[in-house]
Amino acid sequence: MLENGIIESMTAIAQELDQHIALWPEETRLQAEQLVLDVIRWGDAQSLDCMRGRDLEQDVLDILDAP
User: How far is CA 61 from CA 10, 43, 54, in A?
Assistant: First the structure.
């Protein structure tokens, strides 16, 4: 049950990202795509705990808040 909930949540996140990314400037879109690819790679390597810290988090928030 938990696995299905996680998959459904990720699907909803992916759909929302897809809707927003089409509206963003190219530079913002490329940065967001790179961040998503980084998270996938870190997850595959089981090294999410090694992610860059607060600076990265703030960069993502800035990207999401950008007009």
Answer: 18, 20, 10
